Amino acid sequence: MKYFEVEGKTVEMAVNNFLTEKDIPKDFIEHEVIEAGSKGFLGLGSKKALVKIKFNDTEYFKRKGRLLLSELLEKAGFEDFSIEVKNRNPDIILNVISPDSKLLIGKNAQMLDSMQFILNRMMDWEGSDGSFIVDVEDYRERVIETLKEKAIKLAKTVRRTGKPIKMAPMVTMVRK
User: Fold this and answer.
1) What Cα–Cα distance (Å) separates residue 19 from each residue in 15, 25, 49, 132?
2) What is the pTM of this model?
3) Which is nearest to 137 in space by CA: 171, 90, 104?
4) Which of 141, 145, 151, 129 is nearest to 174 (CA)?
């Protein structure tokens, strides 16, 4: 949640100016009137309205990210898919479920990383710490679990034999 204090001639003008300036739909904000303002007499002694706006940025980014990824997949020619949205502070995970999962992941997750890169460039995070992590049928989680199991197995072998073991280079699974 983010909070903003905005001024305007009237409460409605202050809220509308904020919404148009930030390009946010009205259903993602709540507002509280701090000072209603007044017109004064013949324009003298007028006071501006002061409004406190509560912006639910997480829900906004979830919905916008889901729509952008859906549009990206449709333009790439994928038709049968669904997108699950998960929140892992400060990041938002968009998990695609599709019968074309192998195509969406690509070789060494290159397609997955490319979609994630494009989506994060399309979004305007404006001061937020978060980013999108694009996943396909929990592929990234499965790879991380496999790597953990492999590392534990190799660590036990090293402990038993006392000899160092080299692992193959690993692809970074969660990129920003």
Assistant:
1) 6, 7, 16, 24
2) 0.73
3) 104
4) 141
